[in-house]
Queue: 2 jobs
Job 1
Amino acid sequence: MPDTTSPLLLALREGTRTCHKGLEQRLPFFSAGFDLPAYRRLIEAYHGFHAPLDAALTGYQGAERRKAPALVQDLHALNLARHDIDALPLCPTLPRIDSEACALGVMYVLEGSTLGGQVLKRAMAERLGIDADSGAAFLDVYGPATGANWRAFLQRLAEASVSTQAQSVDAAIATFECFEQWLDQQGVLLQPNPHL
Ligand code: HEM
């Protein structure tokens, strides 16, 4: 297998490490009392972020990397009707995407989250008894193609220009910040941990 660890990947990882840790600790997936209604509220909020971001990334990524269809499928499975889904709030503050470098930074965050999704998929199957057909399609959005899609994305990072690395890292950080702020506004996050 070719080595796809690029300087850009290392910079993105390093630049967003604290963001990832901070958000992971505030997400309620593993907290006591997390139940199906709380999960549904979380997926509603995820939808509000991913639906407009999918649209903003058109032109930078293929339709097969869109995340909103799986979230809509999950919301249906969790008993929301089409008109309920259409009425859900959408995040108005998205990271700026006006270049390939920005798009790569944003995509790094979204594509990387499919890896964490594998952990969450197993945890939600155990805790809530849900799978891809009953509300957890998003957590395994690429199914068996997860590894291949990630490696293809890493290859794209490896081929990117080095001169715009800082723009990509800034966009990735902005993506984490916008997402955390949006989820917080939707009331689905735990309080920040002051010891971080
Ligand atoms: C409780 C929630 C989460 C858990 C438990 C989690 C867990 C993980 C784990 C275990 C990995 C490494 C997977 C691997 O190397 O195979 C990972 C990677 C990653 N996660 Fe998360 N994650 C969570 C939420 C998120 C969220 C919400 C985002 C962004 C929206 C995110 C973005 C990323 C990124 C960008 C990587 C790739 C790191 C890299 O390899 O460079 N994660 N996550």
Job 2
Amino acid sequence: MTTQPKTTEAENPYLTREEALAILNTPDDQLDELIARAEKLRRKYKGDNVGIHILTNARSGNCSQDCAYCAQSCRSSADIEKYKWVSDEKLYRDNDFVNKNHLARHCIGLSGMKFTDAEIEELAAKIRKMKETGTHLCCSIGFLTEKQARMLKEAGLDRINHNLNSSRAFYPNICSTHTFDQRVANIKMLQGLGYEICSGGIIGMGESKEDVVDMLLELREINPEAIPINFLLPIEGTPLAHKDTSGLTPEYGLKVLALARLLVPQADIRCAAGREVYFKGEEKRLLSVVNSIFASGYLTEDGQGIEDTIRVIEDAGFTYEIESA
Ligand code: SF4
């Protein structure tokens, strides 16, 4: 049987690799104790609030990169809508929705690895317009040059999402067109410019528990403001379409999320893609660990919708509303 770290270490984020691995190996009959340990930190840093995020897919498909899980990649034959810019009408409607409902953040995803300065200026103009209403904005946007990152910062962009996705060792199994270290370097450059960082990963792509631990330890070093953890939704037409997801039990997912909370306790720990599939009926335990979720879908996959999301949060005894800045 695996030895569990003592509860006196409950607030110590400096778990060793072995202790972190032991947490992922927590026997299921000790899961509630682990959740209680994570919940203490969740309540300390985040109270009872759940941040709801709305995601707009501003640019879809035709990406030159070969990320195995992604429907927008050049090696995916998934049947998705492809466009260079979402309509301004849809983008600003989503932004108004975030403000009207006092949600936490508007996330804007753009497929692709590289952008021209002219494209970034177009995006900057849209950001300036959305910032007029005070929305907290995050862009998921591949690799920017430092000049481009400054252009978006000057336009008012608060945060950038750039996921590590998996461990350094496992990364070549899911992507061959860029490296893990390029991702880390990009995040460091953005942090140097004063950006808030959202960076997390995907669970269920065939990685080992050691890979999950190594990814989370890397994220502890980066110390991002938000850590989105996605649980693989295999998409037809992608190399991972038929990946066996039977290991993605709610128990395992909760252990991963609890470990993220213990390692980076003050971060927004987000249960992102897969929440509605893998955690159905587990919302109370889930929200005891995480304090952030999406309501509108995940780029090419649908989500739960705002009314149901709010109901789930309130039924579990949490609150969601924040004042927009
Ligand atoms: S995850 Fe991003 S970089 Fe990778 S294929 Fe999809 S859109 Fe391109």
